[in-house]
């Protein structure tokens, strides 16, 4: 039977927008010594703004066409990137194209066909994976945008790179404070993201996270949690919002989902932060310590 203190505790936490789905996770939260965070939508607001666009001068695409094609793919995606691009297409009143054979290559990007021609949008890694060459001119722009901390996407039609688009996200106002508090509790902090190394380091530095793992695929997020649990004998909390975070959230000793995130992340979480307020993570740990002391 669940001790009364836990039941009462769960009820109290829900008043603060912290939904605890099982008593076991509240019991585990007091022993956490490692906290791993996803980046986009977890440490950042996931509310990206288009900041730069670069069109391949050797191709005849224009800005509106670039947004039209990317948005046609993105209308099938739940990623925060998708919200930004489809909103822009709506603002510009663009007519989206019909996509056949749509594929979400999770952690890399999207792919489909328009009138029989393959179109792709995603990270540089997607194009390595799909064996499409990126010329030096485009590569230099990609490096320039990512060094400034921007999530940068490449669009190709057929085998030709048509252009790139750089999106900027805002770090949540309580991210740094949350990390500071965790570190003061001797909890080791990690950020793990599918985004590129430069953008990842930029965010990690700003919020004070010590360990950064970037350019990972979704199964590698899971593998990292398992490795820290087994090799380092750590008790891990994982905080995320995306489809790609769900396996890691399930595996963690305490899985935390951001309430504004995808349904699958919320289903996988032991704890859901309804208000998307990151500092609730610290609240949950402190509360767990209090409740468990009362039980012992
Ligand atoms: P994160 O771990 O930061 O949430 P993801 O693993 O979801 O990131 O994605 C990693 C990278 O894959 C993104 O930075 C982007 O380059 C690419 N990507 C993922 N989803 C999409 C999408 N819907 N459209 C374009 N690119 C995407
Ligand atoms: Mg995310």
Automatic annotation (TrEMBL):
Cellular compartments annotated: Endomembrane system
Family: Belongs to the cation transport ATPase (P-type) (TC 3.A.3) family. Type IB subfamily.
Protein's recorded name: Copper-exporting P-type ATPase A
Organism: Methanobrevibacter filiformis
Primary gene name: copA_2
């Amino acid at each position: 039977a669940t001790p009364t203190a836990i039941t009462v505790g769960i009820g109290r936490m829900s008043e603060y927008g912290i939904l605890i789905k099982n008593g076991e996770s509240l019991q585990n939260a007091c022993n956490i010594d490692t906290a791993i965070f996803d980046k986009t939508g977890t440490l950042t607001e996931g509310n990206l703004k288009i900041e730069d666009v670069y069109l391949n001068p050797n191709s005849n695409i224009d800005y509106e066409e670039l947004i039209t094609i990317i948005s046609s793919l993105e209308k099938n995606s739940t990623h925060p990137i998708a919200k930004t691009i489809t909103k822009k297409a709506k603002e510009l009143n663009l007519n989206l194209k019909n996509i056949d054979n749509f594929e979400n290559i999770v952690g890399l990007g999207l792919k489909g066909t328009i009138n029989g021609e393959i179109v792709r949008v995603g990270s540089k890694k997607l194009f390595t994976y799909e064996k499409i060459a990126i010329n030096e001119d485009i590569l230099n722009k990609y490096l320039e945008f990512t060094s400034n901390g921007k999530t940068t996407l490449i669009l190709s039609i057929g085998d030709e790179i048509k252009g790139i688009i750089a999106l900027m996200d805002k770090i949540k106002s309580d991210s740094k404070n949350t990390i500071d508090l965790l570190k003061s509790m001797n909890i080791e902090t990690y950020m793990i993201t599918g985004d590129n190394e430069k953008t990842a380091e930029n965010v990690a530095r700003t919020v004070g996270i010590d360990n950064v793992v970037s350019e990972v695929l979704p199964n590698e997020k899971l593998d990292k949690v398992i490795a820290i649990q087994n090799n380092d004998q750590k008790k891990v909390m994982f905080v995320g919002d995306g489809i790609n975070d769900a396996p890691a959230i399930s595996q963690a000793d305490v899985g935390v989902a951001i309430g504004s995130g995808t349904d699958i992340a919320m289903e996988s979480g032991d704890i859901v932060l309804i208000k998307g307020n990151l500092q609730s993570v610290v609240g949950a740990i402190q509360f767990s310590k209090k409740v468990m002391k009362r039980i012992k």
